[in-house]
Design goal:
This protein has about 425 residues and is of the alpha+beta class. The chain has helices at about 40-45, 50-60, 110-125, 185, 195-210, 220-230, 245-255, 265-275, 290-300, 310-315, 370, 395-400, 400-429, and strands at about 5, 5-15, 20-25, 30-40, 75-80, 85-90, 130, 140, 155, 165, 320-325, 330, 340-345, 345-350, 355-360, 365, 380, 385-390. The strands form 5 sheets. It has a 6-stranded antiparallel β-sheet with strand order 1-2-3-4-6-5. The protein has a 4-stranded antiparallel β-sheet with strand order 11-18-13-16. Strand 1 (about 5) and strand 2 (about 5-15) form a beta hairpin. Helix 3 (about 110-125) runs antiparallel to helix 5 (about 195-210), helix 7 packs antiparallel against helix 8 (about 265-275) and helix 9 (about 290-300) crosses helix 10.
């Protein structure tokens, strides 16, 4: 097979019971793509053909809808009697499945980072009215190839064929999902919402932590009974370096009763972010995880109007560091091609040895060199140990239009507040 539709076929990537996946090339967009071709006999199957067809239509309907850094984007879809296929973003790193065995476990900090990104991506999908319903390691892809020594922790969630879409009963295909990862509500075919995905992601986290599923069973019926009636052992009983905080997160995500489970993705994400700040995870002082960066930016008033997608964009192009007291961050008279945010600590603004201002956590500084005068008007010096976020002008210029718009709008609000304070000071003189 040389072509599928307008796409040139490069090679076969894999084959399953219902589809074959090829690596293709889109000459118009000039990018590699993954093409999932549904086997014709599957759609003609007397028993399950109708359900498979609905799942195909369901996934195809999401083309262009889910645009998020950690969700595989669907570019194109064709549903036809002769040939049905879905064209999606090519993600080369493989799935999380290899890291679900005791001999290939990821480090805890990388693992929590992955689950955090999954939680934010699924929250985005939920706010778009979509519940995935088939979260498992095989549907979480790594953007780069990984090994035990240098594992990639950037991920993309794939395969929304089983998804529920709010307000559209046509997508509610019964009897789909992987039994080991199903919530008790899914096993019992009860009405579902995002909390079923929270449960399933809890199972994935459990498996990545200790290399085994929470419930061991020889058949699906036994598995379903355990899911609905039994409590799993904590992950730390199989792996000694797991802190109690992670046991607690997994336990709450996997609560059988939905009123005891995490009610929102935000609650789940916040607990994961807190786990990074736990000393038991032993992160180096100047190692900033993407989840910590995301959480920090989201907590700053400056970024209150930014979407999650735009926050992830800023995470990608910003520089993070911890500086010692008396570090000169900006120098009077020098060209300014970057601005900063102060996350922790204090800095002072100095002109000719006179302190003009003292900045506290949450404030930005140096932006005037980008939006007005290109030369620094004062020294900015760390007064204590400080955590600094730096953004270069060229990075901001390459950002998406909506991201830049939110930056400039926030800059105007900052300037307005500063002018107001200046007027108050002048009036007091």
């Amino acid at each position: 097979m040389d072509r599928i539709g307008k796409y040139q076929i490069i090679k076969k990537l894999g084959e399953g019971a219902t589809s074959t996946v090829y690596l293709g090339f889109d000459a118009f967009a000039k990018r590699q793509v993954a093409i999932k071709v549904i086997l014709p006999e599957v759609l003609k199957d007397f028993g399950r053909g109708h359900a498979y067809h609905r799942m195909l239509v369901n996934e195809a309907s999401l083309a262009g809808r889910l645009i998020y850094p950690h969700i595989v984007q669907i570019y194109d879809a064709v549903v036809d009697e002769k040939l049905s296929y879905i064209v999606m973003e090519y993600v080369p790193g493989g799935t999380l499945e290899p890291f679900c065995t005791p001999d290939r476990l990821l480090t805890i900090d990388r693992l929590v980072e992955i689950i955090f990104k999954c939680s934010r991506a699924l929250d985005y999908a939920y706010r778009m009215g979509i519940t995935h319903r088939d979260i498992k390691p095989a549907n979480i892809l790594l953007t780069e190839s990984s090994d035990l020594n240098q594992a990639c922790d950037d991920i993309k969630i794939s395969d929304f064929g089983a998804a529920l879409t709010s307000g559209n009963d046509q997508t509610q295909v019964a009897g789909v999902g992987s039994p080991a990862y199903m919530s008790p509500q899914q096993v019992c075919e009860a009405p579902l919402d995002h909390q079923t995905d929270i449960y399933s992601l809890g199972v994935v986290m459990y498996q990545l932590l200790c290399g085994r599923l929470p419930f061991q069973a020889g058949n699906n019926y036994s598995m379903m009974y355990q899911i609905t009636h039994m409590e799993p052992s904590p992950p730390s009983s199989f792996r000694g370096d797991i802190p109690p905080s992670l046991d607690a997160i997994v336990a709450r995500a996997m609560k059988k009763r939905v009123d005891l489970r995490y009610a929102t993705w935000d609650e789940f994400s916040q607990d994961l972010a807190l786990a990074f700040r736990n000393k038991q995870l032993s992160l180096k002082q100047q190692d900033f995880s993407d989840s910590e960066k995301f959480g920090t930016l989201r907590s700053l008033d400056f970024f209150s109007e930014f979407t999650d997608v735009e926050i992830w964009e800023v995470v990608r192009f910003s520089k993070w560091e911890v500086v010692s007291p008396d570090t000169v961050l900006m120098k009077d008279g020098e060209p300014g091609d970057f601005f900063c945010f102060l996350c922790e600590g204090k800095v002072r603004v100095v002109k000719h040895q006179h302190v003009l201002d003292q900045l506290s956590a949450g404030e930005c500084f140096g932006e005037m060199a980008l939006i007005g005068n290109r030369v620094r008007g004062a020294d900015v010096i760390a007064q204590s140990i400080a955590k600094i976020i730096t953004i270069r002008g060229e990075s901001l210029n390459r950002a998406s239009e909506s991201c830049r718009m939110h930056f400039y709008r926030a800059f105007l609000e900052v300037l307005s507040v500063r002018l107001g304070l200046a007027n108050i000071r002048l009036a007091a003189v």
